[in-house]
Predict the 3D structure of the following.
Amino acid sequence: MKSNEIKSNQIKIKSKIVEMPAVCFICLETSPPPIQMGCACRGDTGLAHIGCLVRAAESQATHRGLEGWWECRTCKQSFTGAVQRGLAEELWSRVRDQRTESEDRLDAANILAIALSAQCKYVEAEQMRREILEVQRRVLGPEHPETLASTGHLAVSLNSQGKHDEAERMQRELLEVRRRVLGAEHPNTLGSAINVAFSLCSRGKYAEAEQMLRELLFVQQRVLGTEHPETLATMSNLGCGASTHIDNNEQRRHVAP
Ligand SMILES: [Zn+2]
Ligand SMILES: [Zn+2]
Protein backbone atom coordinates (compact mmCIF):
# COMPACT_ATOMS: atom_id res chain seq x y z
CA MET A 1 0.00 0.00 0.00
CA LYS A 2 1.31 3.39 -0.95
CA SER A 3 2.05 5.88 1.81
CA ASN A 4 -0.71 8.22 0.53
CA GLU A 5 -3.28 5.43 0.75
CA ILE A 6 -2.16 4.54 4.28
CA LYS A 7 -2.48 8.19 5.29
CA SER A 8 -5.95 8.46 3.81
CA ASN A 9 -7.06 5.25 5.60
CA GLN A 10 -5.67 6.56 8.88
CA ILE A 11 -7.66 9.78 8.46
CA LYS A 12 -10.82 7.74 7.75
CA ILE A 13 -10.28 5.57 10.86
CA LYS A 14 -9.58 8.65 12.99
CA SER A 15 -12.71 10.40 11.77
CA LYS A 16 -14.74 7.25 12.49
CA ILE A 17 -13.44 7.20 16.09
CA VAL A 18 -14.29 10.89 16.57
CA GLU A 19 -17.82 10.36 15.23
CA MET A 20 -18.57 7.43 17.58
CA PRO A 21 -21.30 8.62 19.97
CA ALA A 22 -20.61 8.37 23.70
CA VAL A 23 -22.12 5.27 25.29
CA CYS A 24 -23.32 4.76 28.87
CA PHE A 25 -21.36 1.77 30.17
CA ILE A 26 -24.39 0.55 32.13
CA CYS A 27 -27.32 0.72 29.68
CA LEU A 28 -25.19 1.00 26.49
CA GLU A 29 -27.51 3.77 25.23
CA THR A 30 -26.16 6.90 23.58
CA SER A 31 -29.14 9.19 24.23
CA PRO A 32 -29.29 11.29 26.30
CA PRO A 33 -25.51 11.68 26.16
CA PRO A 34 -23.89 10.05 29.21
CA ILE A 35 -21.48 12.09 31.34
CA GLN A 36 -18.04 11.45 32.84
CA MET A 37 -18.21 9.83 36.26
CA GLY A 38 -14.99 11.61 37.26
CA CYS A 39 -13.48 8.49 38.83
CA ALA A 40 -10.36 6.72 37.51
CA CYS A 41 -12.30 4.90 34.73
CA ARG A 42 -11.46 6.27 31.30
CA GLY A 43 -12.95 6.13 27.82
CA ASP A 44 -16.41 4.57 27.44
CA THR A 45 -16.04 2.80 30.79
CA GLY A 46 -15.99 6.22 32.47
CA LEU A 47 -19.30 7.39 30.97
CA ALA A 48 -22.74 6.84 32.47
CA HIS A 49 -26.19 8.34 33.04
CA ILE A 50 -26.92 9.53 36.56
CA GLY A 51 -30.22 7.62 36.44
CA CYS A 52 -28.35 4.39 35.60
CA LEU A 53 -25.89 5.00 38.47
CA VAL A 54 -28.83 5.62 40.82
CA ARG A 55 -30.35 2.27 39.86
CA ALA A 56 -26.94 0.60 40.27
CA ALA A 57 -26.50 2.15 43.75
CA GLU A 58 -29.98 0.91 44.72
CA SER A 59 -29.28 -2.62 43.53
CA GLN A 60 -25.92 -2.69 45.38
CA ALA A 61 -27.40 -1.41 48.65
CA THR A 62 -27.61 -4.83 50.34
CA HIS A 63 -23.87 -5.50 50.11
CA ARG A 64 -22.39 -1.99 49.67
CA GLY A 65 -24.70 0.12 51.84
CA LEU A 66 -24.49 3.72 50.58
CA GLU A 67 -21.09 3.23 48.90
CA GLY A 68 -22.65 3.01 45.44
CA TRP A 69 -23.82 6.62 45.86
CA TRP A 70 -20.30 8.06 46.05
CA GLU A 71 -17.75 5.44 44.96
CA CYS A 72 -17.21 3.72 41.59
CA ARG A 73 -17.58 -0.04 41.93
CA THR A 74 -15.01 -0.71 39.17
CA CYS A 75 -12.04 1.48 40.14
CA LYS A 76 -12.97 2.12 43.82
CA GLN A 77 -12.39 5.86 43.37
CA SER A 78 -14.88 8.51 44.45
CA PHE A 79 -17.10 10.04 41.78
CA THR A 80 -16.39 13.71 41.13
CA GLY A 81 -18.00 16.65 39.34
CA ALA A 82 -21.59 16.53 38.12
CA VAL A 83 -22.01 12.80 38.85
CA GLN A 84 -20.83 13.21 42.46
CA ARG A 85 -23.21 16.11 43.03
CA GLY A 86 -26.12 14.52 41.12
CA LEU A 87 -25.94 11.27 43.08
CA ALA A 88 -25.48 13.06 46.42
CA GLU A 89 -28.53 15.30 45.80
CA GLU A 90 -30.66 12.35 44.68
CA LEU A 91 -29.72 10.35 47.80
CA TRP A 92 -30.41 13.35 50.05
CA SER A 93 -33.83 13.92 48.48
CA ARG A 94 -34.73 10.33 49.41
CA VAL A 95 -33.75 10.48 53.09
CA ARG A 96 -34.10 14.11 54.15
CA ASP A 97 -37.62 13.52 55.56
CA GLN A 98 -36.42 10.70 57.82
CA ARG A 99 -35.92 11.47 61.53
CA THR A 100 -32.78 13.54 62.05
CA GLU A 101 -31.08 10.78 64.09
CA SER A 102 -31.34 8.27 61.20
CA GLU A 103 -27.90 6.90 60.31
CA ASP A 104 -28.74 6.90 56.59
CA ARG A 105 -29.78 10.55 56.81
CA LEU A 106 -26.55 11.52 58.58
CA ASP A 107 -24.46 9.59 56.04
CA ALA A 108 -26.37 11.14 53.12
CA ALA A 109 -25.89 14.62 54.63
CA ASN A 110 -22.16 13.94 54.88
CA ILE A 111 -21.99 12.68 51.26
CA LEU A 112 -23.82 15.83 50.09
CA ALA A 113 -21.60 18.13 52.22
CA ILE A 114 -18.49 16.59 50.61
CA ALA A 115 -19.98 17.02 47.11
CA LEU A 116 -20.93 20.66 47.82
CA SER A 117 -17.45 21.47 49.17
CA ALA A 118 -15.86 19.86 46.10
CA GLN A 119 -17.88 22.28 43.95
CA CYS A 120 -16.91 25.25 46.16
CA LYS A 121 -20.51 25.59 47.43
CA TYR A 122 -19.16 26.41 50.88
CA VAL A 123 -22.25 28.16 52.27
CA GLU A 124 -24.47 25.16 51.52
CA ALA A 125 -21.77 22.79 52.75
CA GLU A 126 -21.52 24.74 56.03
CA GLN A 127 -25.28 24.47 56.49
CA MET A 128 -25.13 20.67 56.05
CA ARG A 129 -22.12 20.40 58.35
CA ARG A 130 -23.84 22.41 61.10
CA GLU A 131 -26.92 20.20 60.85
CA ILE A 132 -24.81 17.02 61.07
CA LEU A 133 -22.83 18.37 64.02
CA GLU A 134 -25.94 19.41 65.94
CA VAL A 135 -27.42 15.90 65.62
CA GLN A 136 -24.17 14.13 66.47
CA ARG A 137 -23.58 16.29 69.57
CA ARG A 138 -27.07 15.46 70.76
CA VAL A 139 -27.11 11.77 69.85
CA LEU A 140 -23.49 10.61 70.09
CA GLY A 141 -22.17 13.21 72.55
CA PRO A 142 -19.67 16.05 72.05
CA GLU A 143 -16.57 13.85 72.42
CA HIS A 144 -17.54 10.98 70.11
CA PRO A 145 -14.94 10.47 67.31
CA GLU A 146 -17.55 11.10 64.60
CA THR A 147 -18.69 14.32 66.30
CA LEU A 148 -15.09 15.47 66.53
CA ALA A 149 -14.46 14.60 62.85
CA SER A 150 -17.54 16.67 61.92
CA THR A 151 -16.23 19.59 63.98
CA GLY A 152 -13.03 19.46 61.92
CA HIS A 153 -15.00 19.33 58.66
CA LEU A 154 -17.09 22.35 59.72
CA ALA A 155 -13.90 24.27 60.56
CA VAL A 156 -12.63 23.57 57.02
CA SER A 157 -15.93 24.87 55.55
CA LEU A 158 -15.63 28.02 57.67
CA ASN A 159 -12.01 28.60 56.68
CA SER A 160 -12.96 28.24 53.00
CA GLN A 161 -15.35 31.17 53.42
CA GLY A 162 -12.87 33.34 55.27
CA LYS A 163 -14.61 32.84 58.64
CA HIS A 164 -11.23 32.33 60.27
CA ASP A 165 -12.14 33.44 63.82
CA GLU A 166 -14.82 30.81 64.26
CA ALA A 167 -12.73 28.19 62.43
CA GLU A 168 -9.75 28.81 64.71
CA ARG A 169 -11.92 28.65 67.81
CA MET A 170 -13.40 25.31 66.70
CA GLN A 171 -9.98 23.89 65.81
CA ARG A 172 -8.57 24.90 69.21
CA GLU A 173 -11.52 23.29 71.01
CA LEU A 174 -11.08 20.17 68.90
CA LEU A 175 -7.38 19.98 69.73
CA GLU A 176 -8.08 20.41 73.44
CA VAL A 177 -10.70 17.62 73.44
CA ARG A 178 -8.49 15.27 71.42
CA ARG A 179 -5.52 15.87 73.72
CA ARG A 180 -7.70 15.02 76.71
CA VAL A 181 -9.61 12.09 75.20
CA LEU A 182 -7.07 10.50 72.83
CA GLY A 183 -3.78 11.74 74.30
CA ALA A 184 -1.13 14.06 72.87
CA GLU A 185 0.44 11.35 70.69
CA HIS A 186 -2.66 10.10 68.85
CA PRO A 187 -2.54 10.71 65.05
CA ASN A 188 -5.86 12.63 65.16
CA THR A 189 -4.49 14.91 67.92
CA LEU A 190 -1.36 15.54 65.86
CA GLY A 191 -3.56 16.27 62.82
CA SER A 192 -5.54 18.79 64.88
CA ALA A 193 -2.32 20.49 66.02
CA ILE A 194 -1.25 20.85 62.38
CA ASN A 195 -4.63 22.41 61.48
CA VAL A 196 -4.41 24.92 64.34
CA ALA A 197 -0.83 25.81 63.34
CA PHE A 198 -1.88 26.36 59.71
CA SER A 199 -4.85 28.41 60.83
CA LEU A 200 -2.57 30.62 62.97
CA CYS A 201 -0.06 30.92 60.16
CA SER A 202 -2.69 31.96 57.60
CA ARG A 203 -3.75 34.76 59.97
CA GLY A 204 -0.25 36.06 60.50
CA LYS A 205 0.12 34.71 64.05
CA TYR A 206 3.55 33.37 63.14
CA ALA A 207 5.14 33.22 66.61
CA GLU A 208 2.30 31.12 68.02
CA ALA A 209 2.23 28.92 64.91
CA GLU A 210 5.97 28.36 65.18
CA GLN A 211 5.69 27.45 68.88
CA MET A 212 2.92 24.97 68.04
CA LEU A 213 4.91 23.39 65.20
CA ARG A 214 7.98 23.04 67.46
CA GLU A 215 5.91 21.20 70.07
CA LEU A 216 4.41 19.03 67.33
CA LEU A 217 7.83 18.24 65.90
CA PHE A 218 9.09 17.21 69.33
CA VAL A 219 6.20 14.70 69.70
CA GLN A 220 6.52 13.43 66.10
CA GLN A 221 10.27 12.84 66.44
CA ARG A 222 9.66 10.82 69.59
CA VAL A 223 6.58 8.89 68.37
CA LEU A 224 7.08 8.54 64.61
CA GLY A 225 10.87 8.91 64.32
CA THR A 226 13.02 11.58 62.71
CA GLU A 227 12.64 10.28 59.14
CA HIS A 228 8.88 9.73 59.05
CA PRO A 229 7.23 11.70 56.18
CA GLU A 230 4.96 13.56 58.62
CA THR A 231 7.92 14.55 60.82
CA LEU A 232 9.76 15.77 57.73
CA ALA A 233 6.64 17.68 56.60
CA THR A 234 6.52 19.50 59.95
CA MET A 235 10.24 20.31 59.69
CA SER A 236 9.57 21.73 56.25
CA ASN A 237 6.53 23.71 57.46
CA LEU A 238 8.54 24.97 60.40
CA GLY A 239 11.17 26.15 57.97
CA CYS A 240 8.53 28.04 55.96
CA GLY A 241 6.80 29.39 59.08
CA ALA A 242 10.05 30.49 60.66
CA SER A 243 11.27 32.17 57.51
CA THR A 244 7.92 33.89 56.98
CA HIS A 245 8.09 35.07 60.58
CA ILE A 246 11.59 36.40 60.04
CA ASP A 247 10.54 38.04 56.76
CA ASN A 248 7.63 39.65 58.53
CA ASN A 249 9.87 41.02 61.31
CA GLU A 250 12.30 42.18 58.65
CA GLN A 251 9.46 43.99 56.88
CA ARG A 252 8.35 45.63 60.14
CA ARG A 253 11.90 46.82 60.77
CA HIS A 254 11.94 48.47 57.34
CA VAL A 255 8.54 50.07 57.87
CA ALA A 256 9.31 51.24 61.41
CA PRO A 257 10.66 54.82 61.68
ZN1 LIG B 1 -27.35 4.62 31.02
ZN1 LIG C 1 -14.36 4.12 38.07
About this structure: Confidence is low (pLDDT under 50) at residues 242-257. Residues 37, 39-41, 72, 74-75, 77 surround zinc ion (ligand 2) (CB under 6 Å). Residues 201 and 209 are 6 Å apart (CA to CA).
